[in-house]
Design brief:
By secondary structure, the chain is mainly alpha-helical. The chain has one domain. The chain has 7 helices and no strands.
């Protein structure tokens, strides 16, 4: 299994986020009601990210199995759910501030930049196959039914192999560093739970 602690997450640019998070955890006590609304969101987000990470094959294939048959970016939707959940868990006016900071940043900067870069890379590598996928499968809002490529029987080039293994795999989950996300969510959830129910001073 891959080490869930990624050194790149400890770069200086992330330091303000960690400081803000620690200050909130140390000084602000969320209530049980906020925690109750928030927990299902970050649990759903973690499960969705885990489902996607176990299917995702970076650089070697166009992944269209698992949650990728319903939406193109399950990891990002999972991040939205987790971030929104933790913002709600804070409770009170700080929840509003957290949501006003998180959503515009994600929707206005982070996701559009990632979508442009990733779509450009996949389009250049997989051509019409990716165009069919992008046309049929929404970015963040899931389809009702799983998508399958009607042209998948057409032989692909060596540079763009067809997706062959549709099963969720633990090695992919680990290789995509999803253990770190799971660990972070678990730690955050435990701390918020302890404070929300008065089990920590």
């Amino acid at each position: 299994m891959r080490n869930p602690v990624r050194l790149k997450n400890f770069k200086a640019r992330f330091l303000p986020l960690y400081v803000i998070g620690l200050v909130i955890l140390a000084t602000y006590s969320p209530d049980a009601r906020s925690f109750g609304f928030a927990a299902p969101l970050w649990i759903a987000g973690t499960l969705l990210r885990g489902w996607g990470a176990g299917h995702l094959v970076k650089n070697d294939d166009l992944t269209t199995t698992g949650p990728y048959a319903y939406l193109r970016h399950p990891l990002y939707l999972g991040t939205i759910l987790i971030g929104t959940g933790f913002a709600i868990a804070i409770g009170g006016f700080l929840s509003v501030l957290a949501l006003l900071a998180f959503w515009p940043w994600f929707a206005g900067y982070y996701f559009p930049r990632k979508e442009e870069v990733e779509s450009s890379r996949l389009a250049s590598r997989y051509g019409e196959r990716f165009d069919r996928y992008r046309t049929a499968v929404p970015a963040l809002w899931p389809r009702w039914t799983a998508w399958s490529d009607a042209s998948s029987s057409i032989p692909e080039s060596d540079e763009a192999p067809a997706s062959g293994d549709s099963k969720w795999r633990l090695d992919r989950y680990s290789d995509n560093n999803e253990l770190g996300t799971l660990l972070a969510v678990m730690i955050g959830g435990v701390f918020f739970g302890l404070r929300a129910f008065g089990w920590a001073a």
